[in-house]
Amino acid sequence: MTAIVGMVTVPALNGQPLHSxxxxxxxxxxxPFQPLKWDMLPPWMTLQMELxxxxxxxxAYNYISGNGRVYxxxxxxxxxxxxxxxxxxxxxxxxxxxxxGLPLHEVAANMRDTFDFRQGYANxxxxxxxxxxxxxLLIFGDQRVVGISNWTNNSRSWDGADLRIGKKNRIDLFxxxxxxxxxxxxxxxxxxxxxxxxxxxxxxLVRGTSLQPFVLIRREPxxxxxxxxxxxxxxxxxxxxxxxxxxYHFDASGTGDFQRGSYSNDSIHAGAAIIxxxxxxxxxxxxxxxxxxxxxxxxxxxRNPDRISTYDQQYPSNHNAFGLxxxxxxxxxxxxxxxxxxxxxxxxxxxxxxxxLHVASVMDDVYSGSGSASVKPPMMGFASDDIxxxxxxxxxxxxxxxxxLQAGQGHFFPGALMTHNQHGAxxxxxxxxxxxxxxxxx
Length: 442
Prior knowledge:
The protein has a single domain (11-441), classed as Porin. Strand 7 (158-166) and strand 8 (170-180) form a beta hairpin. It is mainly beta. Helices cover 1% and strands 55% of the residues. It is built from 1 helix and 23 strands.
């Protein structure tokens, strides 16, 4: 849940880290585009293709003990970029995604979308101002508040408009609606624009520090309150994110935000925070980077029947936010995490991590990565707040400059809360992914 860096409109930047935490470059999270040439292509046009396949093995799919699943997630993307004038850029992107080896009723909503448009926008730009209109991506900070969720097969996009003014220091104003994926028909968004915001990106006020204040506004036209009364949701989320490089190879980042508004006849009072502190042993050949992290998102105690205190996680990229197994979302949760990253060679990156997970309120649900309830408490609440612990190891290797190989394994040990509520199956997830992208120019 860190804050907003702003809307990324250049496809090649998607998934790239904002900073390098060590003196050595970190291999990218997405395969770099291999440049190719085609003389018959107009000089103002660029073609791009992306191929990605990931094999996953889960030992307890859907929390069912012994329900092992091995399946293949495939993703093909193609795009056309057009720059017919110095003040105009047009972009169109399609994707085709599938989950091979899973029964259809077990295929999650983010795994499958048969040939559809993921992006299509017009970018009008003059000096330090841009207006982007159409289907596009929103990438804010490290995507813990709003992001594209690129790890998932379908990924996320929005329909709407963004006005960006400035470069090194800038402000974004956007009005959008998130796109709903329909696996066998064209993707759409809900009626009207429902997600709006303003974000500032200040990089020159404090040396080595980025300050990014933001205000997000979310409106849903039809919701049902705790008293079963239908109405509209109007929610405002102000907050600020910071990222800082400190002396002596220390670094820090964090976010604080809170939410106010109405949910039909109920009031909204919620909030969340993340704080990270890191240290890089710069003189070591592997440049080890140790990070300690704490996350907190409020839950609903139900002490006030007219108040909702469950934090709304907005539209995050939740992959590896609470472990590689991706079982949990940023609602009613507390996490303590320690991670160690290593750079054993120029093109390799290794990450080791351990996390302890608890609910913030024993009277509220345990939530999945999508934000839906996965475990509901009994009438008197959970007897324990212990969701469980997880240990993960992952890495990526850039092969021949343009083939990105990624592999990882995570194991979730369920705590007392899970074992006492029919979700006590330990889960091991293993994956291996290959990605390749190329770009064709005149």
